[in-house]
Amino acid sequence: MKPRRGRVGRAILVVVLGLITAAMGAVPGHSAFGASKRSATTPAGPAVRSIRVADVDELHRVVSTGVDLAEYVDRSPSSIEVHAIVTPAQVDALEARGFEVGPALFTRADWQEVARAYRRTKSAELAVLRVTDDVTIMRADYFKNKHGRFLSVEAKTSSGDIPDVTMTAEWNSGSGTPMGSGGSASMDRFSDAGVYMYHRVLVPVDERPSRVKVVSSEGGRAGKNVVEWLPDEKRRRLAKDFITNYMNPTEVYDRIESLADRYPRLTEIVELPHQTHGYRRKAQAVIGQTPNAAVVVDSVAWGHDGGNDLSVEVVDPGTPNSPLTVTVAGDVISVSVATSPTGQPASTAAHVSSAIDSQAGSVVDTFLYRNSSGSGIVQPHGEVQLSDGLDAPPSISRDPFTVRALRIGRHQDGTRTGVLIYSQEHAREWVTPLVSVEAAERLLANYAHDDRIKRLVDNLDIFIIPSVNPDGGHYSFFDFNFQRKNLVNYCPPGESDLGFADSWGVDINRNYEVGSLFDGYFGASTDCTDSVYSGPAEHSEAESKNVIWLADQNPNIRFSMNVHSYGGYFMWSPGAYEVPGRVPLLRPTLGEESYFWDSGSSILRAIKTQRRTVIWPGQTGPVIDVLYSAAGNSSDELWYDNEIFAWNFEVGADVWNPSAERWEPVGFQPPFQNEGHQEALEFATGVIRLLRVAHRYAKDESPPSSSARPAPGSYSGSVGIRFVTSEPADIYYTLDGSRPTLSSTRWEAAGLRESGATITLDESTTVRWFAIDVKGNRERVRRARYVVTP
Ligand SMILES: [Zn+2]
After folding, report:
1. pLDDT by residue (tens digit) across 639-690?
2. How far is the CA of 429 from the centre of ligand 1 (A)?
3. How many Å lie between the centroid of ligand 1 and the Cα of residue 535?
4. Which of 480, 466, 491 is nearest to 408 (CA)?
5. N or C: which terminus of the chain carries fewer CB neighbours within 10 A?
6. 3-state SS string over 475-504?
7. SS3 715
8. Tens of pLDDT, residues 548-578
9. Backbone angles phi, psi at 288, to 5 degrees
């Protein structure tokens, strides 16, 4: 096995090879093709890559494309390999012409390491060698919330793959004030799955800055104007605040049933077809002595159905040479152990286990404790009661649960744009059902006297599943407050004693079929006790099947909100990527992404009206960019498979502690007074605004209008153009004068969390394009002539 070379070793090799190739023209005998990729990421800038050609004629064709060739040619009998310094765009162009281009051999980052090493070892005079990177500020947002004023900055450097690159932001204190007068702060590096994303910082400020500057340790710098994130809106007068306390799932469903009774003209209860497992278990006891002399005894009946009445005793018969016997008398199982010639107990756990199975198999099943050998001798002990370990009062049903949706709308015939709100996939997120119930109450209570609410109910078809995972929800209320998953246990016997009970279950939001663990996506587990256990298969669980059933049955549903807690996030797809490489599910188009931002900031402004909670810009965006990869989550399935604009709330934004000068998390079950209550009210306001977004979409019949900037005319050398649209929309364009269609080039973002890329025209060009909004309304084709003089 060859030794691996580290980064620095490779970088030094660049210099040595450079000298040799410069002197000798070529170094034969090695190839980049077939070698593993050096890095999972593709460098954004130029890099040295191999190009393989068949013969000298083809080599000349490469040369004629004008690429920057290194002095490196490796001739083998069958082909010629050359090295060239090429940008990703040039790679695309070369590949389009049929050339075989290898992976990046040497990048700018490699050179920067060499230059930095050089700087470190040189005198101050020589160390002025600057390695300047490109810095891009993606967002600079100012906001006011109930705690004060804050500035949020996101910026990235082209040297992001260097781990110790640092970035500093500074800002002024309003227009006309000097840069830096507002303050400065070092930015935090944000990486995910080993891939550099960007740097970010969120700091309190005294005054609203108008401009920020970001400087990197590599010398790059950039500036940007600060915009206000979520400016204040007036609060609307609506009947609200229908929630007086936390509610367990039984109470939640009782409440929506009573709403349906009170408003029969506007509502319908939709029973979802897949009943859950139920808040129930087999009763269990461990007899003998753990680990090796212990037997786990499970009732055949459910605990509430007689299992909890059973008990087991282990008896010493008191006479030598007794046989092992098991008898059942009423609810008591009596194990009389075998004894030795001297009268000592002599039954192993394995023997006791099989004796119980054969003599009491109609009432109990047994297995050895945690995969032990069962070779220990079971010592007698008194009666042990079996228990299912479930503490909820008898008023909580132990039967399989019928999950229901409350359907609200004046017209429930499938002709209106549908919206799906669903809460509590994760059992412990107690505020989330309250958000759903509060929103439903507001719609119904205000229908008769508020025109805007009436328009929503008259023109939309609203489906609310207040608790997707009621079994887990009951368990979280009465047994283990941190329960996240459902109550289905897929663990093998070794992990099936009640000591594991709080770890059983399937993570419903990892059990869907798009971007799942089973498809190779990251952020779920195959371990039955893991908090993100995906279950044994996609859609194995009733809870996830119900959500998808509802979406499939009602194709008019075009919007959804998956309500979770906590942390204060507003997110959309993609929500999962594959590793290595951090390859995400297909990203939304520029038009879709801008629709998400646009609708999102409207929804977040509405949330802010309740108590001035601001969801940060840094927590707004695709799940994988602001949180983490979550393989097999529901909103990805709704977006990719059902073509629904699928969003996720994480309610419960951090609260600023002014004395400690830090943000503090609120948790899954914050005190109801002042926190849980307020979260429910503010995010219910967000749900109502989502309905307005959906209504606006439903009504939208007008095409977007667009223009190209700068204006058409004469430009010398080249001109970079961009498009401006009247509403979020995609642009399809051509540069060869032909009529654009939906198969033409689509205008794409310049990068992660950036707007559209500049299109550079090097020669006179007629640009033809049209804009199309997310509803599919399409502008007539437009044209602009750019004359470019050398
Ligand atoms: Zn959750």
Report:
1. 999 999 999 999 999 998 888 888 899 999 999 998 999 999 999 999 999 9
2. 7
3. 16
4. 466
5. N
6. HHHHCCCCCCCCCCCCCCHHHCCHHHHHHC
7. strand
8. 999 999 999 999 999 999 999 999 999 999 9
9. 80, -155
Are 683 and 756 in contact by the 8 Å Cβ rule? The answer is no
Residue-level pLDDT at 17: 31
Q: What is the 425 CA–ligand 1 centroid distance (Å)? A: 7
Please give the distance, rounded to the nearest whole angstrom, from the Cα atom of residue 400 to the centre of ligand 1.
Answer: 23
**Among 26-40, 131-145, 257-271, 768-782, which is the least confidently predicted range?**
26-40
Q: Give φ, ψ of 279 to 5 degrees.
A: -80, 80
Non-local CB neighbours of 483 within 8 Å, separated by 6+ positions? 427, 428, 472, 475, 476, 502, 505
Residue 638, strand partner residues: none
Whether residue 129 is predicted with pLDDT greater than 80 in this model: the reply is no
Question: How far apart are alpha carbons 241 and 244 in whole angstroms?
Answer: 8
What's the CA-to-centroid distance between 433 and ligand 1, angstroms?
A: 12
CA of 423 to the centre of ligand 1 (A): 9
pLDDT exceeds 80 at position 344: yes
Query: Contact 588/600 with Cβ under 8 angstroms?
Result: no
Phi, psi at residue 163, to the nearest 5°? -65, -35
Which tokens sit at 510?
Answer: 């990892």
| Amino acid symbol at 337 | V
**Are residues 648 and 569 in contact, defined by beta-carbon separation less than 8 angstroms?**
yes
Report CA(566)–ligand 1 centroid distance (Å): 7
Over residues 42-58, the pLDDT tens digits come to 555 678 888 888 887 88
Q: How far is Cα 38 from Cα 103, in angstroms, rounded to an integer?
A: 8
Q: How far is the CA of 472 from the centre of ligand 1 (A)?
A: 12
**Per-residue confidence band for 122, with pLDDT thresholds at 50, 70 and 90:** low
Beta strands in 672-739 (DSSP E): 706-709, 713-716, 719-725, 729-734
Q: Residue 292: CB partners within 8 Å, gap ≥ 6? A: 349, 369, 372, 373, 374, 375, 376
pLDDT at position 234: 82
| Three-class secondary structure of residue 377 per DSSP | strand
271 CA to centre of ligand 1 in angstroms: 23
- Residue 194 CA, ligand 1 centroid: distance in Å: 24
Class of residue 198 by CB neighbours under 10 A (exposed 0-12, middle 13-18, buried 19+): buried
Ligand 1 centroid, distance to 175 Cα (angstroms):
42
Instruction: Using a CB cutoff of 5 Å, list residues around ligand 1, an ion.
Output: 426, 564
Tell how far the Cα of 156 is from the centroid of ligand 1, in angstroms.
Answer: 29
Ligand 1 centroid–CA 132 distance in Å is 42
92 has a pLDDT exceeding 90: no
